[in-house]
Each structure stands twice: as structure tokens, then as C-alpha cells.
Amino acid sequence: MDMLISPSILASDFSRLGEEAQRMESCGADWLHIDVMDGHFVPNITLGAPIVKALRKRTNLVFDVHLMISEPHRYVEDFVKAGADIITFHTECDSDIGATLDLIHSLGCKAGLAIKPNTPASAVFPYLEKTEMVLVMTVEPGFGGQSFMGDTCPKLTEIKQECKAKNLSVHLQVDGGISDKTIAVAASAGANVFVAGSAVFGADDPQEAITVMRTIAEDSYN
């Protein structure tokens, strides 16, 4: 399983979003994680489909779009048209989960399902056949720069075991407080996609930061 680093645009310089996306591509990022917040599902507002569309013209990175919004079903088509490659939304949302996964796939996009720290791993089990990725939040969603919650990682192992039992190949992603100090714990629990914000965008040498984290993940992956 490849170890993939997906820098979070939330930690970038918002006045230079296009350049920041290109910088991540040149530094060896695998994906670009784009956090979409509506001020309702989480207590913050970030960016919408028009900005994703503008960014799409500036980089060839895989767009890993994380919808932290109450009604993802309403906005899926907008984000697919804007250039999303993977759309992840939350089991805790107000939309019908199965119908939203079906809609994402019908529009030619990959689908991911996310769970907050207090949501059990079993919440995603009924939908694993319909998902390309599961995101286990390692902080409470809403704001960047939070501390990694290591006690969420056993859920990664539970999900990985369930996927194995069902003979499924599903990416396991973690988001929140990921750095060279915490990535080993997540990788050893089964994660292979790592969202890193300030650990990359705030690094003196982002390319080195990405390389170091990927290497640690490869050495720690279980």
C-alpha cells in the first residue's frame, strides 16, 4: 500500500492559494486536501466550489475534497464540476449516506466517508463496499492546528480488519495533528493517507517534511 501525503490547503497562505497549490506539487505532495466547511456542521467557514475550480487550473494534484457540511448531497455535483477527484463527507451529516455515495460515483468521482473522534468505526461498516476511502478524524473537525488525538487510531485497525474480512481495498486516511512526531502511530494502526497542514505548509523545507513523513509512514505501516 502506497503511503500518500495530502497537505491541507487550510494551512496555506490564503492570499496565494494558486501558488501554494503549485508549491505542494513541486515539493512532492501526492494529493491536495481541500477542507470545505459551512459554518453549520462545524463552527467555521472556509471555501466553496468556485475556489476549487480556480485551483484546478493551477495544479495536476489529486484534489482530495473533504466536505464538512450538513447537506453534502446538495453540493456534490458543484464540487465534481469544479474538479474534485475524491469527495469525502461525514457519516454524521444530514444527507442520506448511501444516496450521496451513489451520486458521487454516478458523476465519475471517487467517494470517501469520514467519522469524527467520538463516532465508532462501525458507523462506516455498512458502506465500505461503496467507498474508496475512509477518513478517521484525529482532531475535532473545524479548525487547523489542533493536537493529535492518538486514542482515535484503534478505529483505523478496526476498519482495516473489516475491509480485510470483506476482501476490500480501501484507503484509510487520517486528518488532524499529523506530523513527523505522530504519523508513525497512525501508520502502525493502518492509515496510508495522511493529511498534514502546518507540518508541511509551516515547514522551512516542505519537500523535506513530506519526504520524512512518508518515510516514517512506510517504516511504521502495519
State the order of secondary-structure elements, H for helix, E for strand: EHEHEHEHEEHEHEHH
Q: Which range best describes the helical content: under 10%, 10-25%, 25-40%, 40-55%, 55-70% or over 70%?
A: 25-40%
Nearest-integer average pLDDT: 95
How many strands, what sense, and barrel or not for the largest sheet? 8 strands, parallel
Parts with pLDDT < 50 across at least 5 consecutive residues: none
Radius of gyration: 16 Å
Give the count of helical stretches.
Answer: 8
Give the oligomer, counting copies of the same chain as homo and different chains as hetero. single chain
Termini Cα gap: 10 Å
CATH architecture: Alpha-Beta Barrel
Category from helices, strands and their pairing: alpha/beta
CATH fold descriptor: TIM Barrel
How many domains, as an integer? Answer: 1
Task: Give the CATH superfamily.
Answer: Aldolase class I
Q: How many β strands by DSSP?
A: 8
Instruction: Output the strand order for the largest sheet.
Output: 1-8-7-6-5-4-3-2
CATH class: Alpha Beta
Indicate the proportion of strand residues.
Answer: 15-25%
The coarse overall form would be globular
Give a written overview of the molecule.
The model has no long low-confidence stretch (mean pLDDT 95). The termini are close together. The radius of gyration is 16 Å and the shape is globular. Helix content is 35%, strand content 19%. Strands 1-8-7-6-5-4-3-2 form an eight-stranded parallel β-sheet. By secondary structure, it is α/β, with parallel strands linked by helices. The chain has one domain: TIM Barrel, CATH 3.20.20.70. The chain has helices at 17-26, 49-56, 72-82, 97-106, 154-165, 183-189, 198-201, 206-220; strands spanning 4-7, 31-37, 62-68, 86-90, 110-115, 133-137, 171-175, 193-196. Strand 6, helix 5 (154-165) and strand 7 form a beta-alpha-beta unit.
